[in-house]
Design brief:
single chain; mainly alpha; about 70% helix; elongated
């Protein structure tokens, strides 16, 4: 028995075609995020270079690190100490996590809202991209933001002497708000998935 021939899609009317094509207006936004990620890469390399130079006794590199992380102390810092190293490493991790967030927004957003990238079967296809949609992307972005917020909060606590109690409480409250927001997004997504499965 021969298989039915699929009907050819009728051409789109001009106005729906224009509206659908407007998704390409997002392309400069994603290209701009790629440029922003390149800036983060340069910043990461600069900070890493300063850390290595400071480890070998470079005074200017050490001062650049101290200024970058906003570390202040009454005693002058002449050599690289554990606190400075920890704050710099946390700053580097922060850059990496923000870079991961950018990748998720660029790749996932483009795939979801602009055009298919046809990565099926590609050896380097990200695992999360195989089942990405707007809902999954929201949850993953929320979890990434919580991770970034955690790093910032840890940096603040390590460098707590340079912050007021009001700032510490405010950052803690903001982090908790991010946690509850992510939980709400995940719970809403779970409810919507359960409703969708029940319909089928």
């Amino acid at each position: 028995m021969s298989e039915p021939i699929p009907s050819k899609a009728s051409p789109m009317r001009p106005l729906p075609k224009l509206i659908f094509a407007s998704r390409w207006l997002q392309l400069p936004l994603y290209l701009g995020l790629i440029v922003a990620q390149a800036v983060y890469v340069v910043h990461f390399l600069v900070e890493l270079t300063h850390l290595v130079e400071a480890a070998f006794g470079s005074g200017p590199a050490l001062q650049a690190l101290i200024n970058s992380i906003g570390y202040k102390t009454d005693a002058p810092i002449t050599t690289l100490n554990e606190t400075v190293i920890m704050l710099v490493v946390l700053a580097l991790i922060d850059v990496v996590m923000i870079s991961n967030l950018l990748i998720m927004v660029i790749v996932g957003g483009y795939e979801t809202f602009v055009s298919r990238m046809n990565l099926e079967g590609h050896e380097d296809q990200p695992e999360w991209l195989s089942h990405v949609n707007a809902s999954v992307l929201k949850v993953k972005l929320a979890m990434s933001i919580i991770g970034i917020s955690s790093i910032h909060l840890l940096k603040t606590f390590i460098n707590a002497d340079n912050y007021t109690e009001k700032v510490l409480l405010a950052q803690t409250a903001i982090h908790i708000a991010f946690l509850f927001s992510a939980m709400a997004i995940a719970y809403t997504d779970k409810m919507m998935s359960a409703t969708e499965n029940a319909r089928h």
